[in-house]
Design goal:
It contains eight helices and 14 strands. By secondary structure, it is of the alpha+beta class. It folds into three domains: about 5-160, Beta-Lactamase (2-Layer Sandwich); about 200-305; about 305-460, Histidine kinase-like ATPase, C-terminal domain (Heat Shock Protein 90), CATH 3.30.565. α4 (about 220-265) runs antiparallel to α5 and α6 (about 315-330) packs parallel to α7 (about 350-370). The structure holds adenosine-5'-triphosphate (ATP) and magnesium ion. The site of magnesium ion has 5 residues, from α7. Adenosine-5'-triphosphate binds next to α7 and α8.
Amino acid sequence: MRRASLRTELLLRLGVPLAALVPFNVGTTYLDARSTADLVQDRTLTASARVIAERIQSIDDVIEAPIPPAALEMFVSDEPDRVVYRVLDPDGDLITGYADGPMPPTPPKGLAPMHFDGMFQGRPVRAVALAQPIVSAAGTRNGLVVVGSTLRNHDRLVSELWLKALRDQVLLVAAACVLAVYGLTRGLARLTRLRDRVLARDPERPDRLADEALPNELRPLATALDDAFVRIEGDVAIQRRFVANAAHQLRTPLTILKTQANVGLAEASPEAAREALRAVDRSVGAMNRLVNQLLSLARAERGTDALRKAPLDLVAVLRGRLDDLAPLALERGVDLAFETEATALPFVGHETLLGEIVVNLVENALRHAPEGGEVVVRLTSGDGAIELTVEDTGPGIPEAEREQVFERFHRLDRSDPSGTGLGLSVVREAIAAHDGTIALGPRADGRSGLRVMVRFPVSA
Ligand SMILES: Nc1ncnc2c1ncn2[C@@H]1O[C@H](COP(=O)(O)OP(=O)(O)OP(=O)(O)O)[C@@H](O)[C@H]1O
Ligand SMILES: [Mg+2]
């Protein structure tokens, strides 16, 4: 990957179009300078031609055209141009001036001066032709005055005007680039400051990066960073808790396991050894359950951020999980029933987490219901919510304990080795991930037993 600098890129994006404009501007400036110089030269030529024309007179039918010095003084400069003039009588014969001077391509119309480009002795000249009425005995006829000059002063004027404009433009572009660099450096400094704040961020005492002082363009980035930090730090906390819980909770069963194994090894009779092996098997089973519940909890805790929800059919999900629980119901001698009026209930959720909810609640119910008891799972929908109820005929949970049972590792009967005390924690996290609520209460019919009500809001 190319490591492009933002500053270089922005400068290029600004500087290249600006530089591309320069040749265009240089062209137009040159044309401007030329037309100004043309105008100056044409005016001088016209003025000179008029001064000469005014002096033309016819005395006794002899036309005279003295060239007044003023007519030529106009062209005086440090580096004078070659001036060429000629005066023609109405018949086109030369009265005075250069015979090989430039001639207009067509005779001028009326008395207006006519400017044209021509050649004189191999050099380009600019010239004017002016018709002048000459009064004589034969009547009034037009003579012609032609004045031309070489282009030296004209060209010098063009380059002077042009160079000055060019210099101004180059200075302007340079100034624009310097200002752009300055502005960019100042602007990018805010990005650097944001980076410094990210680097200096203390996860123990995090403050949000997206604050009022940030410019609008940086705020989305800062907000995204803040969100990412919250997510990552949440994930890290979950992982840490998982490792700590696992290490702590597995220590005791591992010690027991070790003892059981040692006992088994020390037993001489195969029957006693088998008994110890059975104990080992039970311990391993319990540990297996613990690890699985810890993993479920970690997964549920990550919630909706990391998990992708998908449209599913709640009835089908429930039926699948309850089928898995049928052997347990059979083993416990408990009647497990599923009641729902819907054949299908569309819901957007996370299938695994929804499965955990059902399995944990129904497992608890099956474990606590007495032999011959019953567990009823009910699924209803309406009022913008889906309700899942699990009822059993067990001892129920005293009101004072109904909040605590959701805490990790909290069990009412500590002597019962089968549970880990994590099931309801998993359930609570999985329900939170679906924005749902859970409530424990007594059975509606007044019989002994627990009634668990789960409610998921569904958007219409
Ligand atoms: N249906 C129920 N009837 C009576 N007590 C219950 C019922 N469900 C849960 N409890 C009590 O709440 C405690 C916490 O339940 P939870 O499901 O969190 O853990 P567990 O069942 O002990 O362990 P795990 O579910 O991980 O195997 C249980 O130990 C039990 O004492
Ligand atoms: Mg449980």
